[in-house]
Amino acid sequence: MGKLLIVGSVAFDAIETPFGKTDKILGGAAPFIGLAASHYRADSAIVSVVGEDFPASYLDLLRERGIDVSGIEVVPGGKTFFWSGRYHNDLNMRDTLVTELNVMADFQPVVPEAYRDADIVMLGNLHPDIQLSVIGQMDSRPKLTVLDTMNYWMDNTLDTLLQVIGKVDVITINDEEARQLSGEYSLVKAAEAIHEMGPRYVVIKKGENGALLFNDSRIFFAPALPLEEIFDPTGAGDTFAGGFTGYLAQTQNISFNNLRNAVIHGSNLASFCVERFGTERLIQLRPQDIDQRLERFRELTQFDIEVK
Amino acid sequence: MGKLLIVGSVAFDAIETPFGKTDKILGGAAPFIGLAASHYRADSAIVSVVGEDFPASYLDLLRERGIDVSGIEVVPGGKTFFWSGRYHNDLNMRDTLVTELNVMADFQPVVPEAYRDADIVMLGNLHPDIQLSVIGQMDSRPKLTVLDTMNYWMDNTLDTLLQVIGKVDVITINDEEARQLSGEYSLVKAAEAIHEMGPRYVVIKKGENGALLFNDSRIFFAPALPLEEIFDPTGAGDTFAGGFTGYLAQTQNISFNNLRNAVIHGSNLASFCVERFGTERLIQLRPQDIDQRLERFRELTQFDIEVK
């Protein structure tokens, strides 16, 4: 059983989809990552920041799922990061209505003493300065450092982002971001170019079209589970990262073959996430639900052709 | 070893991609289907029509690959169907520059006597009247009838198309066409609606994002092989259909499990097709190329998670 250190935003989200809307609910990358990872046998901790307005019940929720929240700083008098968005009818596009960074704007992360030797570090999507600071606080190089990021940081803080990319083992980005970062249209060529920047594993997420794992010339593909209805895509990428790193922290095996399994676990958890608003489904999830759906992934992809 | 009857256009294609352009080359659905299927142990025949301008060397090419071309009518003084198109830079969109139906406009298909008991009938994309006529000429219901069609026929001859759909076992269409035909956005719901129209198997092709096979509540997914470069997408869907039906004619097993394999074979052949202009790559292909790439499909998708 390994230690998983998660850095990421903790936020209030207000979401509108064609199926309904929410008031401010628990959001941000870190809760999705942490709750997804909490379904695996690993010691997890979150490094983040919230304001005084952040409900104790949300911290309790994370604590009850076994997540160490001592690294979540509560800023007296501060306001928690707030994001609001509205999805289009096909759910593949969304408009951001509000982004209030609040306490996130001046966040200086402090990694708890007990997690400076974490096996797996999951750098959730936020300012590369914060990701770099967390990397610098580790006692030694973790077994595996995983970076999630997005086009915003490519547009605005590319130099720092490239420093971070140079220090990680795995990067997870979507297809358009992979193209932007590499300048290559072909995802195979994009992954090659990104390997050159540092990460020996490149995960390219294609939403409802699945995810590709590249490791030099080796490629693995995990489909997204075809669902009758996608209710709310918010947090699907973070949930993928949580299932991916939670499984790796549990198994402590960072070979390419086991990363294949981790991609399936990440995709599996993400398929639940989108069935309800926010983190709701991740919280209700039982081990047997996870196992049953893993079996569906097997049925979905496994075949048996005799190659002569 | 089974008999495969193919009906489809035989044409001249003139293609422009970002990588180059061709003069009039061998095109149309039937040659792609037939050449792909010719890599399997099956007796195949094409029913189609060409003009007097169609080179004997193209017919010889098909004959040399073991395809019965006695059902390809040559119209004295007629001109062969001609299509010209230009692909956009990302190859996902194309503009049709020229469509000259010529002899295809009045085509009355005649199924050769020896193929009226074919095991598998592959109805390539063309006018539903022609597809219906071929179905009507069979001595008895084939083991499996596979229909390929497109949005053009949904827009213009929906009633006849629905008659054809009601008589086939498998339909292959792309994701947008599945949505148009069913009125459902979710592909899972679209497949359910299309099952109700007749076909017990629904194959939804998503181009570089792979293909889904639906059979009631069962789903199988085959990815497209990630390629460094796609050179010319023309005929990829027809090649998929040829690999799919060629493999089924060889194995004579139309269970869901074997259709999974057939979808992988179809995807495998299609991955070769797009590497060169037109049918060029399908003609050069050796059995060991096919086997090696099947192995890549296995590596791409197979994983081994212990489900407790």
UniProtKB/TrEMBL annotation, chains A, B:
Q: Which InterPro entries match?
A: Carboh/pur_kinase_PfkB_CS (IPR002173), PfkB_dom (IPR011611), Ribokinase-like (IPR029056)
Q: Which UniProt keywords apply?
A: Kinase, Transferase
Report if keyword Transferase is assigned: yes
Q: What GO molecular function annotations does the UniProt record carry, in alphabetical order? A: kinase activity
| Residue ranges annotated for the Carbohydrate kinase PfkB domain, each copy included | 6-280
> Per its UniProt entry, which superkingdom is the organism in?
Bacteria
- Matching PROSITE patterns, A to Z? PFKB_KINASES_2
GO CC terms: cytosol
One Pfam assignment: PfkB
Q: What is this protein called?
A: Carbohydrate kinase, PfkB family protein
Instruction: Tell me what organism the protein belongs to.
Output: Robiginitalea biformata (strain ATCC BAA-864 / DSM 15991 / KCTC 12146 / HTCC2501)
